[in-house]
Amino acid sequence: MLLESDASSWYAIDVAVAAGVISVFAALFTGWQAFEAYRTRKGNEKAIQTQADALKEQADILRAQAAALGSQAEMGRISADAAKRSATAAEDSAKATRTLAETGQRAWLTFDFIQVLSRDSHEFPLAVLAHIPNGGNSPAVNIRVDGRYSILKPGEEGFACTVPPNVNRGPVGPKGILKYHIDLGQIKAELSGRVKTGELHLYVYGLIAYEDVFGNPRSLKWCAVYQHSSGLFLFPAQFGDQQVLT
Questions:
Q1: Rounded Cα–Cα distance for residues 93 and 71 (Å)
Q2: Which letter does DSSP use for residue 105 in this model?
Q3: Which residues on adjacent β-strands are paired with residue 223?
Q4: pLDDT tens digits for 193-241?
Q5: Residue 184: closest CA among 155, 224, 149
Q6: What is the SS3 assignment for 144-198?
Q7: CA 18 – CA 11 distance, rounded (Å)
Q8: pLDDT tens-digit profile of 106-115?
Q9: Any long-range contacts for 233-236 (C-beta under 8 Å, 24+ apart)?
Q10: Hey, is 63 helix, strand or coil?
Q11: 203 Cβ neighbours under 8 A, 6+ residues apart
Q12: Highest mean pLDDT among 90-94, 166-170, 205-209
């Protein structure tokens, strides 16, 4: 039969054992919580790393796409430059072909000679006719002319031609001749005498504007000087050191 003191001892032992067991379970629970926290942290770190790797891979893909687009853009620029050069070459070739065709087929007005129509009693010219042939292979159209004369000292400047805007003398066909009249008027005997001695020069000159059949504007300037000894106008005339002919 147990004594009261023995029962108290056993009770104390049971309490101590229970406390120990509780402590063990508490330690185990704490350890499990710590392990779960560690595992959760590791899982989060792994998820974060996975997400980071995925983002890095996506960035690499975007960089590769950007590089590919850059290459395509460069190739497109090169292709565009090549196409532009080809187009320019084709245009230049077309222009050269057109120029050659126009040169061979265009109208060419040139100065031929001055015909004296009338003279005074001293055989000095009063009126002349300029002969301007078309040496080209197509008509000259929209022809406008200006013809004048000047009595000048050798080397003195005094030519001034303007083209009337609305005087049409055309067309002149291939191998045709444009003829236009220049009236010298009644030149004073004193001036004509000085022309005969060579102290003064009598010039007749003109400016002709026209178009070829390709629509290009053309022009001709001409000048001839009177030689009294022969009674003819000589061409081309020298005006000082400059030949008046373009």
A1: 32
A2: H
A3: 205
A4: 898 888 999 999 888 999 999 999 998 888 898 998 899 998 765 443 3
A5: 149
A6: EEEEEEEEECCCCCCCCCCCCCCCCCCCECCCCEEEEEEECCCCCHHHHHHHHHC
A7: 10
A8: 999 988 999 9
A9: 233/113, 233/114, 233/116, 233/128, 233/204, 235/111, 235/113, 235/114, 236/111
A10: helix
A11: 149, 150, 151, 152, 159, 223, 224, 225, 226, 237, 239
A12: 205-209
**Global pTM exceeds 0.85:** no
Alpha helices in the chain (DSSP H): 4-105, 189-197
Span 154-177, mean pLDDT? 75
Backbone angles phi, psi at 110, to 5 degrees: -135, 160
- Written as one letter, the residue type at 98 is R
Q: Give the angle 31-34-36 at the CA atoms, nearest 5°.
A: 110
Which residues, 6+ apart, have CB-to-CB distance to 200 below 8 Å?
Answer: 151, 152, 153, 191, 194
Tell me if residue 241 falls in helix, strand or coil: coil
Joined tokens for residue 148: 């004048």
Q: Is 152 exposed, middle or buried (0-12, 13-18, 19+ CB in 10 A)?
A: middle
CA-CA distance, 197 to 193, in Å (whole number)? 6
